[in-house]
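Below is how a single chain appears once it has passed through the pipeline. First comes the sequence as given, then the structure the pipeline wrote out for it. We keep one example in the README because the format questions we get most often are answered faster by looking than by reading.
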Amino acid sequence: MSVIKSKAMTAYKQLRKDVMYGKYQPLDRLRIDPICETLKVSPGAVREALSRLVSDGLVVAEEQRGFIVAPVSAVEMIELTEVRIEIESYCLREAIKAGDLDWEASILSSHHKLLRTPIGNDFLSVEWLEAHSEYHDSLVSACGNRWWLRFREQLFAQAERYLSLHRVKEEVYLDVNEDHQGLMQAVLNRNEKEACEIMSNHLQKAADNLLKSGVLDG
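Resulting structure:
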């Protein structure tokens, strides 16, 4: 990989993370010069990274005006959740069928890390969101179908943008922890039906909680 391509990939990964976890909010303008200064990369590398994020659906290119973070909406979240339930369930079933001891160990490790990571005070912390992503990734990592995993990764990134809008509430946090614990146990017990039911309910509750919060009303 050339130096230019390497810099573009570095910029892409960092900007993707910043958009997913809420450093850049929906409709924020992504100005190339400040990003270059922050990431210590060239304008060309930033443009290439932003173009990739447009393909991912995380950023929108406006003609003659540059780039903005993709908007969010209640309708999109409802549709996203519906599709995610199907894809996450498929990947989870396949992972349960194929997973080995190393896979089980990765789930235990990522779940422990998630429990030990501070959730944040007002909004969910970036550290918690990253640990949350690692945990969910570990659950499906043994799925052998790369295309399903690729689709899942793209949808998960979109969903994390919505998750970053959640305010921290103790009762919701405890419920989420219970879901994560139950999901891990069902997966390790190789109980496909129970695991998929918990996953589906987990995703739906997250969407319902955000809808009830009114954050997406505007």
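The chain has a mean pLDDT of 91.

See the next section for the split statistics.
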